[in-house]
Amino acid sequence: MSDFREALESISEAQCSEHPGFSADGACTRCGTFVCAFCALSWAGRCFKCVHAAPELATRRARLAASLVDGAALLLPCLLLGVLRCLAIPDEAAMNAPAVYAPALLVLFVQVSLIRGTGASLGKRLLGIRVVRRDGRPAEVWRIALLRNVLPLALCGYFGWLGLVDALFIVGEERRCLHDWVAGTRVVKAPRAQRSFAARLVTG
């Protein structure tokens, strides 16, 4: 009890590291530096230094799960519509009609909208991760769409083994696939306030 009282007294007597003259209202949730009520409210309990620190890299498990979610979101609606069409018109091939691919176009539109707003596709958003440039700045939509997705898919169509090489690059210390190096991006954990409950369970 006395230790707890001493801790409270030390906080009440301390000043905010970022705003001298303001009494400390708590401690930074990342490094323990004293912060005032303004910092606690504006920066989710972190000090200025920690807010602007380099974000933590996304785990390999989270990146794999996000890729699976994105792939399922793109393929499953088309497959379902194809199966329903096959049942309705048994004599025709299920995937011949252009309408079968309409859900994929809708998913791509949603993905682009999410990436433009958050730097994260549907899968990455659910897993609490996002794509940023190597220096930490937000990544442009064209950089993510063209250099991280379209170009690798096009090259893998000609060189099938390139997909495996691309994925194996993630075992490096920076956890960057080959397409990350080409696009000058990396995948990091989103700020905790922007992460869903499911993302916090999976990625910590």
TrEMBL record:
Location of the protein in the cell: Cell membrane
Matches recorded under SUPFAM superfamilies: B-box zinc-binding domain
Pfam families noted in UniProt: RDD (PF06271)
Example of a GO cellular component annotation carried by this entry: plasma membrane
Topological relation to the membrane, as annotated: Multi-pass membrane protein
InterPro entries (UniProt xref): Pra-immunoreactive (IPR051791), RDD (IPR010432)
Keyword line: Cell membrane, Membrane, Transmembrane, Transmembrane helix
Chain segments annotated as transmembrane: 64-87, 99-117, 150-171
Record-annotated RDD domain positions: 58-184
Coiled-coil ranges (or none): none
UniProt-recorded name of the protein: RDD family protein
UniProt organism field: Myxococcus llanfairpwllgwyngyllgogerychwyrndrobwllllantysiliogogogochensis
